[in-house]
């Protein structure tokens, strides 16, 4: 499809790793951008950027939360000859009140989207809802394995989206011209409460996992007692807040708009993850 490597920053992560696999399955030369790759890529070490970008025309940017690095990275990519940028952003980046003004991820996404839209390159923005894989690979897995997930999510629901779908939309945007200039809002085909999601996991695994709703204050206090820095605990609580405030239950059609097929149901994710041993000891 192209002789130029396609750089995937965060190329070993939940979405980036899947994007690498899907690109290679299409015969596209994906370059993994990570601290362990060769050439090495480290968001916080700008001396690694040029080697990772060498010969690259297209980049999938999985941003680094905590510092506003997307803008200088995209500018450097442009200077080195990159022509297309696909950005992994997040739901609520353009919704007032979705995240607090101090949200690290919120600032990263807002500034990153502005940088990409105004960089003068071909661009596509991908805004997923909560990842289904948070239950099997991410934030929630340890709690699922322990049998109890304690969160300040109330009885709100979220339209969890499969990371395979997120990666597929990114790959389409990297390899097809029809996605240039578009922002895709991605979700699964239905919204589930945390309790409903855990019930499906319990049924598929035979492992009893219960949801315990907490107030934000109690949640933060528990994390601090576990040794979390207060700022990190508060940021985690803030990230869950939109579920509690019913700002994450709406459905988005970005998967079908980009790929021409429906998004994968959460139940299918659970079935596949259970079969793959995601929740085995």
Automatic annotation (TrEMBL):
Residues 10-176 form the NAD(P)-binding domain. InterPro entries: Ergot_Alk_Oxidoreductase, NAD(P)-bd_dom, NAD(P)-bd_dom_sf. This is NAD(P)H-binding protein. It comes from Streptomyces violaceus (Streptomyces venezuelae).
């Amino acid at each position: 499809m192209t002789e130029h490597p396609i750089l995937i920053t965060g190329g070993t992560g939940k979405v980036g790793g899947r994007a690498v696999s899907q690109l290679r399955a299409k015969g596209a030369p994906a370059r993994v951008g990570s601290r362990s790759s060769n050439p090495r890529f480290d968001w916080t070490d700008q001396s690694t950027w040029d080697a990772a970008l060498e010969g690259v025309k297209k980049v999938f940017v999985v941003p680094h939360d905590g510092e506003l690095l997307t803008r200088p990275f995209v500018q450097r990519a442009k200077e080195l000859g990159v022509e297309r940028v696909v950005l992994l952003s997040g739901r609520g980046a353009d919704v007032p009140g979705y995240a607090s003004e101090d949200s690290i991820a919120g600032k990263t996404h807002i500034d990153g989207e502005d940088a990409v839209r105004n960089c003068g390159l071909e661009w596509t923005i991908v805004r997923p809802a909560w990842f289904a894989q948070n239950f099997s690979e991410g934030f929630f897995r340890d709690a699922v394995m322990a049998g109890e997930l304690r969160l300040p999510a109330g009885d709100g629901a979220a339209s969890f989206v499969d990371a395979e779908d997120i990666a597929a939309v990114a790959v389409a945007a990297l390899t097809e011209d029809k996605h240039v200039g578009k922002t895709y809002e991605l979700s699964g085909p239905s919204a589930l409460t945390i309790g409903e999601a855990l019930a499906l996991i319990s049924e598929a695994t035979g492992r009893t996992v219960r949801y315990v709703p907490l107030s934000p204050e109690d949640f933060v206090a528990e994390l601090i007692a576990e040794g979390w820095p207060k700022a990190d605990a508060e940021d985690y609580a803030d990230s869950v807040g939109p579920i509690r405030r019913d700002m994450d239950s709406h459905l988005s059609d970005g998967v079908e708009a980009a790929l021409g097929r429906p998004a994968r149901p959460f139940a299918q994710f659970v079935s596949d993850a259970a079969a793959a041993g995601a929740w085995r000891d």
